[in-house]
Amino acid sequence: MKNSTTAVLAAITILFSVNTITANEIKSQINTEDVIASGELQSVFDNYFAVKDALIKSDAKTTSAKAASLLTAISAVKMDKLKSNEHTVWMKVVKKLTADAKAISSNTDLKKQRESFKSLSKNTYDLIKVSNPDQPIYKQYCPMADADWLSKEKAVKNPYYGSSMLTCGNVVETIK
């Protein structure tokens, strides 16, 4: 009887151990998928910020080059790696993101680049809002340009006017 009880207890212990290991493996797999999904869009976001920074410097040539890199990042996104809420928004904005990046990259007229950047910012905002960024992202607004943009820094640096009105605008939302 004692051996039977010991055997049953040993079997229960093994089952609990196996379940715990399996649960930890599943949890690890889910966390890895989350990292992959946010990483899938990270290149798009990084390239958006590079375009914004070039516009702040009023450098049309660099803006064009950074927008070409953004275009490459957009086309490299693997939709099957996105989380479902990211995928839904991605499907709504991908054509417009692509069109705006093309318009900016194929142009060296700052005024036209900045006009396309308005739409690019709106669609990037929709995407970044659902992707839960690891660091705060600031949505900023310039009343003179009647336009928004996104920034990693809280300090306002206006991409629509560059050095002529660098600090025109304010933070209207913090995305966390």
From TrEMBL:
Stored InterPro entries: DUF3347
Ranges for domain DUF3347: 44-134
Keywords associated with the record: Signal
Signal peptide bounds: 1-23
Highest taxon in the source lineage: Bacteria
Protein name as annotated: DUF3347 domain-containing protein
Lineage of the organism: Bacteria, Pseudomonadati, Bacteroidota, Flavobacteriia, Flavobacteriales
Keyword Signal among record annotations: yes
